[in-house]
Amino acid sequence: METKTYNIAVIGGDGIGPEVCGAAKQVLQRIAEKDGRIAFSFTDFPWSCTWYKETGRMMPEDGLDILKRFDAILLGAVGRPDVPDHVSLHGLLLAIRQGFDQYVNLRPVKLLKGAPCPLKDVRREDIDMIFVRENSEGEYAGKGILEADRAEQVGVFTRRGCERIIRYAFELARRENRRRVTSISKGNALNFSMVFWDRIFAEVAKDYPDIEANSLLVDAASMFMVRDPGRFDVVVCSNLFGDILTDLGAAIAGGMGMSAGANIDPERRFPSMFEPVHGSAPDIMGREMANPMATVWAASQMLDHLGRPDLGKRVLDAIEAVLEEGVWRTPDLGGSAKTSDVTRAILEKL
Ligand code: NAD
Ligand code: IPM
Ligand code: MN
């Protein structure tokens, strides 16, 4: 039996990032040992705000060339209170997402069994949606001016950019037997970019008569995510709306400690990157309080992407089994277990 080795770049980053990446690495290692047909070789990179303080950069000038050789990237989180966030995030996280044209940000919002939910009168099965967030342009294009008395932030929406992400959402719906794609936009106020987005959504939807296409304004969509989450299945939206709504999604599906995302280049020209939705959580760093489940879930998405959805599912099932058992819970889930306790519990379920 031949073993395929995957080379994974690990960027722990700041705060709890390295702690939760440590958990995800152990899980990947264990599932590979159990399977026997795959193996992982991890290379850790120290790129972070600490590295910035020493070098003046968030990653080396040829950072993307270095990362390009890897099969995938595992990222913890970036950001430290004493480095401006726009410097740290544009210098590392956004530089990778955009530099590698990881134009799909896939963020599942699914309430696992045993995970807490703050909503009343909602069935667990009703919280099962997948966000397809545009991840390469839009409000995050990084264009504009910043002067003493005036700032302008330019959103860039291209036909290519909108069409490819919307098409991806419909293809995903087909592939996963999901019936509905909801586009979330704001054409009533954003009279250029979102009018453009809405037009392209309507055009692309015509190619998928088998999938129900639905469009919501972002304000109403926020309300429905709380009042009637069952109406969402596949959701497609712009970069900023996807950012905001997936924190809301995390809140209804167990919290920030449970929410994962994959930054994908579907054409596989570049490595894709897997990370939790949460940030570096400086308030709890170094105290073994971080819930590793979000990053372990991201590792499960990595397995899916590397062509082993069977293993991805086993990892997700292990997380769910630990939650359902309810013994090992970090403080965000109302328990007092440590990061390492929860990691061990997940490893045991594997
Ligand atoms: P955050 O997600 O780091 O934290 C928000 C709250 O959730 C905090 O109370 C934190 O303790 C809690 N939390 C987050 N992850 C948790 C986990 N795994 N287990 C338990 N509790 C968890 O958001 P923030 O405080 O707005 O941002 C902190 C820093 O992280 C900032 O510098 C920000 O720019 C950065 N950030 C980075 C990323 C990223 O790298 N992908 C994402 C979001 C924010
Ligand atoms: C996320 C984060 C990032 C984003 C920040 C840190 C730039 O909030 O991954 O959700 O806005 O995409
Ligand atoms: Mn965010």
Note down, in words, how this protein is organized.
The protein has 350 residues and is α/β, with parallel strands linked by helices. The chain folds into two domains: 1-107 and 258-350, Isopropylmalate Dehydrogenase; 117-253, Isopropylmalate Dehydrogenase. Helices cover 40% and strands 23% of the residues. The protein contains twelve helices and twelve strands. The strands form two sheets. A ten-stranded mixed sheet has the order 2-1-3-12-11-4-5-10-8-9, sandwiched between helices. The chain is globular and about 50 Å long. It starts with a strand and ends with a helix. Bound molecules: nicotinamide-adenine-dinucleotide, 3-isopropylmalic acid (IPM) and manganese (II) ion. 3-isopropylmalic acid is lined by residues 89, 93-94, 243, 277, 279.
List the ligand species: nicotinamide-adenine-dinucleotide, 3-isopropylmalic acid, manganese (II) ion
Helix content: 40-55%
Beginning-to-end CA distance, first to last residue: 21 Å
Oligomeric status: single chain
Please count the helical segments.
12
Number of domains: 2
Strand content: 15-25%
Give a count of the beta strands, DSSP E runs of length 2 or more: 12
| Rg (C-alpha, Å) | 20 Å
- Which class best fits the helix and strand makeup? alpha/beta
Strand order, largest beta sheet: 2-1-3-12-11-4-5-10-8-9
Overall 3D geometry?
globular
Low-confidence stretches: none
The CATH architecture designation of the largest domain is: 3-Layer(aba) Sandwich
Helix and strand string, N-terminal first?
A: EHEHHEHHEEEEHEHEHEHEEHHH
User: What is the assigned CATH homologous superfamily of the largest domain?
Assistant: Isopropylmalate Dehydrogenase
Largest sheet: 10 strands, mixed
Provide the CATH top-level class of the largest domain.
Alpha Beta
CATH topology of the largest domain: Isopropylmalate Dehydrogenase
The average pLDDT is 98
